[in-house]
Amino acid sequence: QVQLVESGGGLVQAGGSLRLSCAASGIIFSINVMGWYRQAPGKQRELVATITVGRSTNYADSVKGRFTISRDNAKNTVYLQMNSLKPEDTAVYYCNARLGTGRGYWGQGTQVTVSS
Description:
The chain is mainly beta. It is built from no helices and eleven strands.
């Protein structure tokens, strides 16, 4: 089992910044990839960014150049630095951890609201 606890969401004006954190516990040694996904009202959950245990990263085109994903293996934490936020970034952001077996775990989600 893997437990994920997100923090750092909130309300920010367009152009502002937020940093999300996701702390992992449990069988963390089995985690291969961690990532952030988001779901806006009425829309499907979508990939935002992922980072592998080797720190290879992948980003959605809509956030490239504005968001940065990173991980601190010593703290078992993954971060999402979000800059130049836009109203269309408004969503519930979910942390995801995927084990080497392919099994995935989700956090409870944290709300990010960007006002225009």
